[in-house]
Amino acid sequence: MKTFELNGTVRTDLGKKATKADRAIDNVPCVLYGVSDNVHFTSTKSDLRKLIYTPEVFIVDLTVDGVKTKAIMKALQFHPVTDNVLHIDFYQITETKPVVVELPVKLEGLAEGVKAGGKLALEMRKLKVKGIYTQIPENIVIDVTSLGLGKSIQVGKVSVENLEILNAKNAVVAQVKLTRAARGAAATAGK
Fold this sequence. Notes:
This protein is of the alpha+beta class. The protein folds into two domains: 2-93, CATH 2.40.240.10; 100-190, RNA Polymerase Alpha Subunit, Chain A, domain 2 (Beta Complex). It contains four helices and 13 strands. The protein has helices at residues 16-24, 45-52, 112-115, 180-190; strands at 2-10, 27-33, 39-44, 58-64, 67-78, 85-92, 99-108, 119-122, 126-131, 140-143, 152-154, 164-165, 172-177. The strands form three sheets. A six-stranded mixed β-barrel has the order 1-3-2-6-5-4. Strand 2 (27-33) and strand 3 (39-44) form a beta hairpin. It is elongated. The model has no long low-confidence stretch (mean pLDDT 85).
């Protein structure tokens, strides 16, 4: 996984008034969980932009007032009207405790069903996985070369080394759908 460096400043005032004041100067309130005492801190919106607005998953090298920690982003809260980031939760990670993250799915190859006139559809853009952070890849690559017309790949058929996939086993990840042209070609070929 890729790493992302982030600096923060410890928050001493935790009330509603202090939080509003932090947001007014373009700081985002954050919390680091997984340590003995939860660490409340702020970071600037400009520092967080490349971490938030990307489909990739990062290990965050977090430095809060000189104390370094490895963490992952667990939860984001956006304002319902303005879409500004209101709050971020981070979780400290270690090499002994597994973490749960959502990894992007990447399809590879030209499906047989697409050659026959179908359309490849990615139904799940991310899969939830559990594992040690050092063994988690940047994305899950699925080969769709042998996927026929009207066929699908379910979560139960996907396996990633050293990771446990937590999504429902019968959920469809990708499928080749019949197009109207393919249906018409099949109907005229049958006559």
